[in-house]
Amino acid sequence: MKRYGYLYERIYEWDNLLSAYRKAKKCKSSNVIDEFNYYWESELLDIQSKLMNQEYVFGAYHRFMIYEPKERLIMAAPFRDRVVHHAICNILGSILDKTLIIDSYACRNGKGLHRALKRAFYMYRNSRYHYRLDISKFYYTIDHDILMDLLMRKIKDQKLLSLIRDLLNTYDSGMQYYDPYEGDDLIDMIRSRGLPIGNLTSQVFANYYLSSFDHYVREHLHQSRYVRYMDDIVVFADTQEALHESQREMLGFLQQIKLKPNPNKNFIRSNGQGLNFLGFRLVANQIKICNANLRRFKRKLIAKSKVKNIDLKVLLQSFNGHLGFLLGGHTKRVINNVLDDFEFTCNYRKCKLIVC
User: Fold this and answer.
1) What are the backbone dihedrals phi and psi of residue 340, each rounded to the nearest 5 degrees, phi first?
2) Residues 87-121: pLDDT tens digits?
3) For residue range 50-60, what is the model confidence (pLDDT) as tens digits?
4) Mean pLDDT to the nearest integer, 126-138
5) Which long-range contacts (CB under 8 A, 24 or more apart) does 349-354 make?
6) DSSP 174
């Protein structure tokens, strides 16, 4: 296995820091970012100097909760740290991406949720049974030492490994998410674990954390009909026996890397019963919207329809994310039926939305 060195110096190269800064500020606005933008050259030079001398210190997170689609604690890093996160991912992302299988779809150029959904739908239509698996509290339970061991398989640059370790040490989910495993002792109980939801590096590291699991399923268990989007996993087969055997082996592998399945999403069923995957429902020859996502979309429509006057551009921007997600299935008619029930006041004129 090829290991890469001389990476740390590439992280603080001026062109890389400039690219990282532009990515970090894209579509973002705040007083802190505006202040950074005003002094951007001196700010980047300061970051470069600190990285060059191995003196960069990551700052404290701003914590807040979100409740849609489910309750999560978001950790927002200081803006200058986000620039460094992008600088790391600019260099490290492509190296780690080479280790991923073709049917891993999260946080990768040319992949994404909709492609994962279509790939799963193709496999669903050409099989009889499926094994649905989801990791319980995935981000919160990723073991730091195991992650570092996995990263050392690809990186031999000690300076970069030290910077990554410093980054991991900025967050620890603590005992709250500790779940004992057979043979654990006190040291295992207090091991550092968890990646902060909100960091770009967390997405890249979390995706890579399950790369060895992907290869195990594909190459050792010979399950070629396998799709993963971060910790949402589905395996297809023509017999239940094949899936039950693979299930035991897969859960055993997850235990080795200190992960456990979500008890509500760890089952084998017939494809005739349908399959919920990535917010959609695969059933017969259709990809339908899950009811929970449709209700969430309706709640947003109700809120926007009550605004007395709203700029059309602002209105469309507020729905772009929802529509981009919902149009991943065979959903255009359903969405238009929902939109037809709502009327908006844009620039003092009544209007309705329609998806063409």
Assistant:
1) -65, -20
2) 999 999 999 999 999 999 999 999 999 999 999 99
3) 999 999 999 99
4) 96
5) 351/312, 353/315, 353/316, 353/319
6) G
